[in-house]
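Hypothesis: this fold can be encoded by more than one sequence.
Test: take the structure tokens below, design a sequence, compare later.
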């Protein structure tokens, strides 16, 4: 599993996704691009990939494409349209890209050279606590229960998606 983080200005989301799809097919990998404001840490994505892969092994997946399955788990949502909220949008985006599959290094190199405008490893983990709390429906009492550890609540939401069938 490889991560690429940084900033990218997106004029056309469909063209951006098409460029990612091309890299994905050429390298035989799954690539998912996230808005960094929603990704609490590296473990958030690692857990999403692990849960998505387990669902696919058990033939219990929600989506046909592995990258979409990863998105759904990272978002803790069963509906693709709802999960897309944690993806990219038109304008300047701080992104976290996860790459998993055959040629992860080649895909990462392609993304670094042709997709990301400004590489920045500090993007991963620089989430927006208010946005995350709202998106994942985290209550104040939940935060109090875990002594303010929003990250552990998000990881729980990711894992619970499989249970909510």
């Amino acid at each position: 599993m490889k991560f690429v983080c940084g900033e990218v200005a997106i004029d056309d989301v469909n063209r951006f996704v098409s460029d990612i799809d091309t890299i994905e097919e050429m390298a035989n990998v799954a690539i998912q691009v996230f808005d960094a404001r929603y990704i609490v840490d590296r473990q958030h994505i690692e857990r999403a990939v692990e849960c998505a892969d387990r669902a696919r092994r058990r033939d219990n997946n929600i989506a046909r494409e592995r990258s979409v399955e990863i998105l759904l788990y990272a978002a803790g949502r069963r509906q693709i349209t709802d999960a897309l909220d944690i993806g990219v949008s038109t304008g300047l985006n701080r992104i976290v890209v996860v790459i998993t599959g055959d040629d992860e290094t080649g895909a990462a190199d392609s993304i670094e050279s042709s997709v990301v405008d400004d590489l920045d490893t500090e993007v991963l983990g620089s989430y927006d606590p208010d946005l995350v709390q709202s998106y994942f429906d985290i209550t104040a009492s939940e935060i109090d229960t875990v002594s303010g550890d929003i990250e552990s609540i998000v990881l729980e939401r990711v894992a619970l998606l499989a249970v909510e069938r």
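Residues 42-57 form the longest helix (16 residues). The mean pLDDT is 95.
Hypothesis status: open.
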